[in-house]
């Protein structure tokens, strides 16, 4: 049965259905209603979890790290500066291989202060080793949260589920919460091989040497670099695991089937607009009106950004005439991060398309459909003239 | 706690393996061994970066027999909260959740998380071992370094500011149990830890641990110097239980007695080399005034 509510409530409902056991949270706009909703679920005993209202985001992740190490399903959520304040902890969580799930309601970063949406916060954390999934609407938020818990547990790597602040976090849309019983089938109870246990003591995250070293039993154990290498391999393998999880989800709930990229009118497209998050749905209108004028254009939303789905991206973009990447974030001092990643994915393609980068919407600057139509039309008319430096849409200098 | 523990009835069970990576004469080694005896098997430890991280050993070897989670410097109080949260979620009610951190990790970078845990009333024991500087990174000043002490970041004039009174700050949260202890009086420490395991809510124990290389003294003098800190009245042993303050052990016995002059203590360590007479006189006056109130 569909309900109509905000993206934050969709996320909270996903967390409830996933039976999170320890929830730590610190408020920051636009994530706040999510943590408020969770506190309500816990106090009303709809969700049997420990809700810990901590004194900072650093501590929120600290609680999740410890609770996960101790053998429980842990969840937190944040935005913008809250996410940045966690940075040290994000590295720690993944280095310790903890299956924590976190929602990020994407928001621009201070200074100067802004509460409105862009994606700089999570994009700035792309290299910490967390899996990053981006949802485009409320249904994807709730579905992604449930899938994220299963993925995190399967690969022992934490997962961020990101969605656009306000555009999704605060708007009301219909979505269908899956039935609890079915979710229980899909997502088994939390279990990890190693956890804090007085019956079976271990020292977690100790000082580790550069080189391999035997333990007291003579067994050779990895050095730091081996541990990091294993993380990288497991991250890359996580793509296949996620695909399986998504297939299972589709079987059970009928939704999904595009775990890496979600294409719209791309089949015969010469031109493909690429972006992350709700913008890819916004762009569908523009693509529709260009199609009416017989421009062969489609749009592709990147659903998982780390690990980067190189293969899926090359498959989707190889042989196209021109690719136009829209981004609500930058790798400052260079280009859009997504643009650079896509360029690098296409490097090995024989039929490499030309590619172009637009920056837009930073700090919530309104993204006007007319402007999108204008730049896309121009890009399709003269793809060969595109320069490598990103162009900014709607700047008023 | 009715009966005091003595060397005769102290449990023989050990939770620290013989041989670890602490310096010889380390005050922390003494209290760690004693503390784990008092905590017993059903305990989970939370440890931030510090000399204790090193003491624990290098992967894949560990020097203690209890489960330990190493966490980031600032997050000790939060991590202990997380372990307790997990224990509640798993309905494991009989586990001691113990944070064990240095003075820098407690008084400076970790105070926010510790304060949060105290305010929320988390059922944890927090033990701060106070070697009065950042020793793990090579003897830099911390919030609890006493005035006048030479460290590598206060190398000529010594630290200009006074020692931060962390137990009082924690006591101001109104938690049920705050105590101080010293590595020179390990059985007193043992009893305080033991008592902490029987009380609900947050418990805070601040234990003074002499450090031979950091304080610049020969490793055989650890106990002697620890005792002098107490006997001069510089470091007092006490308990604050439900708001009631009382001196304990060796400090209690000093009430109405003549204390040793603080110069006796200062003379034993290289770190006090640049104390001038005025500062020493000032410290003696402060100590006398404090004790006049006991
Ligand atoms: C965020 C962060 N900053 C700095 C450090 C470096 N660091 C590691 S241990 C330490 C000093 C610890 O001092 P203290 O807590 O007093 O314990 P001790 O080493 O004296 O036993 C510092 C500064 C760190 N690990 N993490
Ligand atoms: S430096 Fe001091 S506190 Fe650290 S291990 Fe050595 S003696 Fe102990």
Automatic annotation (TrEMBL), chain A:
Q: Which GO terms describe its biological process?
A: carboxylic acid metabolic process; response to oxidative stress
Q: Which GO terms describe its molecular function?
A: oxidoreductase activity, acting on the aldehyde or oxo group of donors
Q: Which UniProt keywords apply?
A: Oxidoreductase
Domain (Pyruvate flavodoxin/ferredoxin oxidoreductase pyrimidine binding) spans: 16-213
Task: Give the Pyruvate:ferredoxin oxidoreductase core domain ranges.
Answer: 269-369
| Coiled coil location | none
Q: What is this protein called?
A: 2-ketoisovalerate ferredoxin oxidoreductase subunit alpha
* High-level lineage: Bacteria, Pseudomonadati, Thermodesulfobacteriota, Desulfobulbia, Desulfobulbales
UniProtKB/TrEMBL annotation, chain B:
- By its UniProt entry, which CDD domains does this protein fall under? TPP_PFOR_porB_like
**Pfam families under this entry?**
TPP_enzyme_C
Q: Which ranges carry the Thiamine pyrophosphate enzyme TPP-binding domain?
A: 71-207
Q: Which GO terms describe its molecular function?
A: oxidoreductase activity; thiamine pyrophosphate binding
The yes or no answer to whether the keyword Cell division is present is no
Task: Cite the entry's keywords alphabetically.
Answer: Oxidoreductase, Pyruvate
Q: Its GO biological process terms?
A: small molecule metabolic process
Q: Which InterPro entries match?
A: PorB-like (IPR051479), TPP_enzyme_TPP-bd (IPR011766)
Asked whether the keyword Oxidoreductase is assigned, the reply is yes
Q: Which residues cross the membrane?
A: none
The record's listing under PANTHER family reads: 2-OXOACID OXIDOREDUCTASE (FERREDOXIN), PYRUVATE SYNTHASE SUBUNIT PORB
What is this protein called in UniProt? Pyruvate ferredoxin oxidoreductase subunit beta
